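Review form for a predicted model. The reviewer records the input and the model, then writes brief findings.
Reviewer: anonymous (R2)
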Amino acid sequence: MIKVYYNANGVISSHLVSGDEIDLIESKQLIWVDMVSPSMAEVAELDKKLGLDLPTRQETEEIEFSARYWEDEYGITINTYFLVKHGITASNESVSFTLKDNFVITIRFIELPVFGDFTRKLLLNPSHYTDGARVMGGILEMRIEDDADTLEAVSREIAGIARLNPSNFDDTKQFLSMIADFEATNITIRENLTDKQRVLSSLLKSSKMPSSLKSDFSIMIKDVNSLVTTANFNFERLDYLQNLFLNFMSIEQNKVIKIFTVMSVIFLPPTLIASIYGMNFQYMPELQQSFGYPLALGMIVISAVLPLYIFKRKGWL
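Model under review:
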């Protein structure tokens, strides 16, 4: 899908354009071309029409910074991450921005709610978005706000885990798996924010960006920095929760081991006495006495009760 936006004297108009109609796009009053899952032929046709060198999908997914941001005679090209939440987990999807003259071209391969939200904002405030640079800045600003909401939601979920009693988790693997999912989500968010830090820093240094927008980018990068701090705190909290849970499990295991140890000590003396009188020797005086059997039973009982009494007095039970 290709959607084209024009700003004619403060009036925004949008048009859906098919691959065969790309040649009808006019650069005059053009502020934004939004391409969703375009074919290679459509990208090549738009390159030819507007005199661009748009990145391929493979180029948008490369991770080295030289492939994430560059400037040339055409303008500025940015490949930046947009966060996509999947329940407790998240992933990063690359979106390409190519800024030239007064318009910007965005290329994405997935539907992202932020673009629909920004389109509504664009139609409500046409006088504010007079060129492609402001459109790009508006999308990035809205994306940062959405990232902040996502990070706040993740932080609340992690805080909710901290309030739970570890004894409520019967399955150790279940709890550790949940912690691992939150850590993976937080890593994805942290990677996303780091990418935005680098992009915004480069835009601030660029001579191709209007000076009126650089103050907005300065505010954005401060917001991103604060989000990075929150993401780092989430890592510390998750490490604390994991260590707390493992320590709790260690204490519970020690209690079980303690019980077995006490039981072993309690039954050791009776076992010793029973073993002595279970030996098959001909001359064992007690075997010939009428009180031998009760005496042996009494010694077994006393040897079992005495350790229990001692452990109870010392507080070991």
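Findings: The radius of gyration is 35 Å.
Further findings: The first strand starts at residue 2 and ends at 8.
Recommendation: see findings above.
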